[in-house]
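Hi support team,

I submitted a single chain yesterday and got back a structure, but I'm not sure I'm reading the token output correctly. Could someone confirm the output below corresponds to the sequence I sent? I've pasted both exactly as they appear in my results page.

Thanks,
R.
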Amino acid sequence: MLLYGNVHDDVCNATVLPGLKYIKINILSPFGNTTKGTFFLDLFLQNLNLLQMSELNKTTNSLHAGHETQLTEGTRAVPIYQTTSYVFNDTEHAANLFGLKEFGYIYTRLNNPTNDILEKRLAAIEGGVGAAVFSSGTSAISTTLLTLLKNGDHIVSSSSLYGGTYNLLNVTLPRFGIETSFIDPKIVNNFSEAIQANTKAIFIESLGNPKLDVLDIEAIAQIARQNNIPLIVDNTVATPMLLNPIKYGANIVIHSLTKYIGGQGNSLGGAVIDAGTFDWTSGKFPEFTEPSKGYHGLKYSEALGNIAFIVKLRIEGLRDLGGALSPYNSFQIIQGLETLSVRINQHSKNALAFAQWLRAHEQVEWVNYPGLETSEYHSLSQKYLPKGQSGIVTFGLKGGFEAAKKVTDATKLFSLLANIGDSKSLIIHPASTTHQQLTEEQQSSTGVTPDLIRLSIGLEDIEDLKNDLSQAISASL
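Hi R., thanks for writing in. Yes, this is the structure output for that exact sequence:
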């Protein structure tokens, strides 16, 4: 945990908050102590605040973390700062902000007070040292990878991915000279065997969408650590209330906030949480150790220690790639986050009950849900997801591809759309939609079969959902 260090103008070099674990970092101004400013001290104090919040339960932090009511005129609700920019005190103040000599708000593409509260809450409940929010989950993934990687670099990735992420890694990133090796994550040693001299990241989903495979994060993290490679985990389906990948060795955690965290299907958003545990000085990441051309020779690792990545992601990634989250969307997502612990528990209970019901249906060929005792991932789900296995269920009908399409078309409560994690129940046929761009072999590697139907089980009465799917199956015969 980040709790002491050398701060700008030698403000302190001592421990604070007794009884906690301390890791020293150097947060001197990159311009030296002769330059007055508070940017790095402010970052330091923000991290102290995060650590104080980390002493609270996740449910409590989802409601309170990051919002200091005395700074918002006493408002109990988080205010929406719907503004593009911020008035500077004078030209010197503006110059200090742009020069990283003072912390503050410049432009909403970089930071915003509403977004800042959401970021602090996400960092607190995932157990990270900092977070940054983005316009979508895909923006969060692409900005993370483009902040870390360059032409000639390589990624090792689980093949069990959301279709959009698979296409990003398989089609788009190669145009930037970044290649990906997709492997079957069920055999953990496959990650070791796929690592090359130029491998700079391992990418996985904690709970694959739509394969629903539970990955052995701890074992994969050990491989990443042995090879000085950051482990990036998309934790969207599991959510931080059911699983915290950082506890098992993940270095970076990503979320599509559009899904369970938002929970209402009304706002796109994404987030990146930095565990602050990766050593960027191993020699594999010169962008962190060599002088930055964009910030007057700033050396990220030297100046920022274990918050180097999340700061670089913001002041370069958001600045240059521009995937900023709207403050209004941030406010909407905060409303969802505040009820996430209650909702994800009910999603999980409903999904397990629905999966058990499907197993007994005479027209159903197979059912996949990691909470079922018959699931090949059941033992891993008990280790990583003992409180619940989230709300996604997949199944196949005896009628195959055509029957799957007919059932998908015939539901009335289940909405046919390309999303998951809504409070309302959703249905889709991935082979003809979300994974349509993949070859049959690629679809198979991601867990998509021609007959697969993906259900996102919502918060409706479970009997009403059973009746709706029953009538849809009957209509397809």
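A quick pointer for reading it: The radius of gyration is 23 Å. Let us know if anything else looks off.

Best,
Support desk
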